[in-house]
Design goal:
The complex is a heterodimer of chains A (57) and B (540). Chain A has 57 residues and is α+β, with helices and mostly antiparallel strands. Chain A is built from 3 helices and 2 strands. Classes of the chains: A alpha+beta (57), B alpha/beta (540).
Chain lengths: 57, 540
């Protein structure tokens, strides 16, 4: 049941960083193989616009 | 003519650390006297107001809007300056080119053999992202807070079934294969594995183990709620199983605030029935439990991170332990000497402690120690609900504040990165003539401010000067959770603090003890002996 964890302990880390960019920079500073996902919150729709959309849909 | 202007960008998001960096860059633009670029949360607006940087435009901003607040020398240049700020906002990061992706799918495609992910997006959005990662058999460090409890339970159940780690939510720290994830220190590798439901607890533990000359295999942060009944210790138990099977790990430490009683029983029963290695438990603030017969001699119970680290090292190598005890962790005679020297300088009215902490577990441990030595203290996160501060911005008698809590961080970077709020508070506390001692924790390492000691220098000098001009001496104690190998270098940080008259203690527990002795203004050796015997060593 812990094989995947033991495998991780023996492997070179390859990291996907999602969110705070500076964690990605920390990984780069440590020479860790990593890619960064630029994340944005879904846009907030104004209430009146939402009401109109609700009517149409 | 000097003017203050706010520009609001509707529905425009940058993360708190990027905003901190942008603010610093904006301050460097010619003609700018002061600048702050923040999301429009209530806390940020309050701080802008305090800094004299808020106008009606900014007041109208919402949590989803960005406020660009500028104080400029000459109103004629404002358009030109704003243009430069806008350019900063849209400039790509220096490394952006080939390793930045705008969807998880494209990132997974680019790094096909990814084996771990660090997720630090707002908690309400984390579930969907983590589910996709678990589907691909990728372990997750989930830094985010505000992840709904039901999401945590769902994700951890799936991960447990698949034998994958979900470290968090609200796990500030992890060290996997020597790599620091989130906020973590550069520590020695060695035979001690640690699983922690306490972020700065994990940092303090790994740092002290490393300073004592030993090291860690892995540091697994699981988030505070893991050891509570609804989650049932799923990741703590999975980590114990992994450490038990890992040939490199000889000693296993479990660090947390008090688990729910049923979860604590589950953990201890699991250790009794299914394990062979040596264990150290550190349930800070928890009740002492009866060590089962079968575990006598291979499980040590401790009350502080200081004791947990020392005992873990002792289980590895008794000789290292003896040396560490002498060199690193100060015998009581030294603590008494420090306390007596400070007591002699204090005025009669000065009797209170004000702890301004950035680390949640360090705040908690300090309160647990104070409860033993001087009783309950006021806090925004008190042990005893009766000691809840009615206004978290105003201290009462002995007060210990966790500045990493929501009320100080909404839409802002954590105080380990952005010391602004602590600097203002430090100066405020110095104005109170009844304050004797101020406590500061400096948690360094990856993720933290590049030079927190220097960033605090002006405020420390100002605080000391305020006291001095009022005919008082102000004692400032500090503890650095960090190593010489950290990017900030703990030794250098210590020298900077000492140069400003700050007394630096080697562990958080010893800082708390020293503060209690100074505030009480008496040296009760029996009490100190009891503290050393119960809080700084373990129980077999």
């Amino acid at each position: 049941m812990v094989e995947k964890i033991l495998k991780l302990f023996k492997s070179e880390l390859k990291v996907i960083n999602i969110g705070l960019e500076f964690f990605y920079k920390s990984l780069k500073d440590q020479n860790v193989k990593a890619v960064h996902v630029v994340w944005q919150p879904p846009p907030k729709i104004e209430k009146d616009l939402q009401d109109i959309l609700d009517k149409i849909l | 003519m000097v003017i203050v202007k706010n520009f609001v960008k509707k529905n425009f998001y940058r993360d708190s650390v990027q905003l901190l960096h942008l603010s610093e860059e904006a301050k460097k633009i010619e003609g700018v006297l002061d600048a702050a670029i923040v999301m429009g949360t209530d806390l940020n607006k309050e701080l802008l107001e305090k800094q004299g940087l808020l106008t009606d435009e900014g007041r109208a901003a919402t949590d989803n809007d960005m406020i660009i607040a500028l104080k400029v020398e000459d109103s004629a240049n404002i358009d030109e300056i704003l243009e430069k700020v806008e350019k900063l906002l849209t400039a790509p990061g220096e490394t952006a080119a080939e390793t930045y992706y705008y969807s998880l799918e494209s990132a997974l495609e680019a790094l096909k053999d990814a084996n771990i992910a660090v997720v630090s997006i707002p908690g309400q959005y984390a579930r969907d992202v983590v589910l996709k990662l678990l589907e691909r058999d990728i372990h997750v460090h989930l830094f985010s807070d505000h992840v709904p409890l039901e999401h945590e339970i769902e994700l951890k159940k799936i991960a447990y079934e698949k034998g994958l780690l979900v470290m968090g939510p609200e796990a500030g720290t992890a060290i996997i294969n020597g790599v620091a994830l989130g906020f973590a220190n550069v520590v020695n590798r060695g035979p001690i594995g640690v699983v922690a439901a306490a972020g700065t607890g994990l940092q303090e533990f790994t740092v002290l183990v490393s300073q004592a000359g030993s090291g860690i295999t892995q540091g697994i942060g699981v988030g505070g709620r893991d050891v509570k009944s609804p989650v049932g210790g799923l990741m703590t138990l999975l980590s114990i199983k992994a450490f038990e099977a890992d040939p490199e790990t000889k000693v296993i430490a479990i660090v947390s605030k008090p688990p729910s009683p049923d979860v604590q029983d589950k953990i201890i029963n699991y250790i009794v029935e299914n394990t062979k290695k040596k264990y150290v438990t550190c349930f800070i603030g928890g009740k002492t439990f009866e060590i089962p017969e079968k575990l006598k001699g291979r499980l040590v119970q401790t009350k502080t991170l200081h004791a947990a680290a020392l005992e873990a090292v002792k289980l590895v190598d008794e000789k290292l332990y003896e040396e560490a005890k002498k060199k690193l962790f100060l015998p009581k005679e030294e603590i008494i000497k420090i306390a007596e020297a400070e007591i002699a300088k204090l005025g009669e009215r000065q009797k209170y402690i004000r702890g301004l902490f950035t680390g949640g577990t360090l705040t908690f441990e300090t309160q647990v120690i104070f409860k033993e030595l001087i009783g309950d203290v006021y806090s925004n996160t008190p042990l005893n609900p009766e000691y809840q501060l009615p206004d978290v911005h105003k201290s009462i008698k002995h007060t210990v504040i966790d500045l990493g809590e929501e009320e100080f961080t909404a839409g802002r970077a954590h105080p380990m990165i952005d010391p602004t709020i602590r600097l203002l508070r430090l100066v405020d506390e110095a104005k109170d003539p009844e304050v004797a001692v101020i406590l500061l924790d400096f948690v360094i390492g990856y993720g933290s401010h590049p030079d927190p000691a220097t960033a605090h220098l002006d405020a420390i000098k100002k605080a000391k000067k305020i006291a001095e001009e009022d005919g008082r001496h102000l004692t400032i104690l500090a503890h650095i959770t960090g190593t010489e190998k950290d990017p900030q270098n703990a030794k250098k940080q210590e020298e900077i603090l000492r140069s400003a008259g700050v007394i630096v203690l080697p562990t958080n527990a010893l800082m708390a003890l020293t503060a209690a002795l100074i505030a009480e203004k008496k040296i009760d050796e029996a009490k100190i002996d009891k503290f050393y015997n119960e809080f700084l060593v373990g129980k077999y």
